[in-house]
Amino acid sequence: MKPDSMCTKLSDYEYDLPKELIAQQPLENREDARLLILYRNSGKIEHRRFYEITEYLCPGDFLVLNNTKVIPALLSGKRVSGASLELLLTEERKESQWKALIRSNAKLKAGEEIYIADNILSAKLLKKGEDGSWLIQFDNGYPIKDLLLRTGKMPLPPYIKRTDNNGTCYSSDKERYQTVFAQKEGAIAAPTAGLHFSHSTLERIKKYGAEIGFVTLHVGMGTFLPIKTDDIRKHQMHKEYYECPREIMDKIKETKGHRHRVIAVGSTSCRVLESVAMHNETPQTSGWTNLFIYPPYHFRYVDVLLTNFHLPRTTLLALVCAFAGRENILNAYEIAKNKGYRFFSYGDCMMIM
């Protein structure tokens, strides 16, 4: 294989995946997921279960998790003609004004009025952005977040199939497409590596002597939109809001000072830590990041990465290739496929050491 520094084509981050390996439902117990251990220096691989994760931790390790909370941001709607729409609210711009991705069978027009959630309220399409999203204006004063809590659905990725007649699946998704430590509302996709943790797993990790801290990155379009440029270096990430409290920064420096490991749980936690590390002299405890990590990249804070198996041609796959080496990752993915691992959001995970 060619060196990672030359892997700048989108086709370098392609692989085939049988549809039956795309996890459609979460496991009954979060911690029963399979855990592939990848040693990035040697390429060695081990196969375990997530509840065995403490066997790969050391006292003094510092696990950093993303405590963002997914909002039920998926709404149904109709055009004046009665044709159905589906809206994914992606970002609140100001009172009653949101950015949204809209799925429609017909072309939409600026100035058009649409009706939301069985005509509970209307919204006007203001303008369409270059990224395909719409800026929409809801009826003034209507509490949109209350509407989402009442009628919104969890914004599951399109590869997880749900139909209107399996409402029980939708209701269980409200719990399971959410980490047990979710706290700060604002994400439109789950930080999926964190889905494997149960409260009991977190307690066992603490008793083992590893420490746990939380950052926030509200997962948005920057994380889940695919790369569309043939040269990945030309891809522009959407900005996402993050918070990294001062005590987390201090704990990272203390951990590294004692030669212990900083373990990022998920690509979103990793991007927060690396965004902060880039401004080490004047670190920001909160702000917006559009950091796109791809090979070659020098990781400043993250020593170990816990992550799910990602879609091809995505910024997420590029990030793990930067961390472990593209050849190691693609080889691990082939082995995972052959052993029947479950892929993507509700799937299994890997720990890169």
Question: Could you walk me through the main structural features you see in this protein, from its secondary elements to its overall organization?
Answer:
The chain is of the alpha/beta class and 353 residues long. The chain folds into two domains: 4-70 and 175-352, QueA-like, CATH 3.40.1780.10; 74-152, Beta Barrel (Thrombin, subunit H). It has eight helices and 17 strands. The chain has helices at residues 144-151, 167-176, 199-208, 221-224, 246-257, 267-277, 315-324, 326-338, and strands spanning 34-38, 45-49, 62-66, 68-70, 74-79, 84-94, 97-104, 113-116, 121-128, 134-138, 184-187, 211-217, 240-243, 262-265, 286-289, 304-308, 349-352. The protein has a nine-stranded mixed beta sheet. Strands 5-6-7-10-9-8 form a six-stranded antiparallel β-barrel. The longest helix has 13 residues, at 326-338. The protein is globular. The mean pLDDT is 93.
Topology:
Layout: E1 34-38, E2 45-49, E3 62-66, E4 68-70, E5 74-79, E6 84-94, E7 97-104, E8 113-116, E9 121-128, E10 134-138, H1 144-151, H2 167-176, E11 184-187, H3 199-208, E12 211-217, H4 221-224, E13 240-243, H5 246-257, E14 262-265, H6 267-277, E15 286-289, E16 304-308, H7 315-324, H8 326-338, E17 349-352
Parallel strand pairs: 1-17, 3-12, 3-14, 4-11, 14-16
Antiparallel strand pairs: 1-2, 5-6, 5-8, 6-7, 7-10, 8-9, 9-10, 12-13, 13-15, 16-17
Helix pairs in contact: 7-8
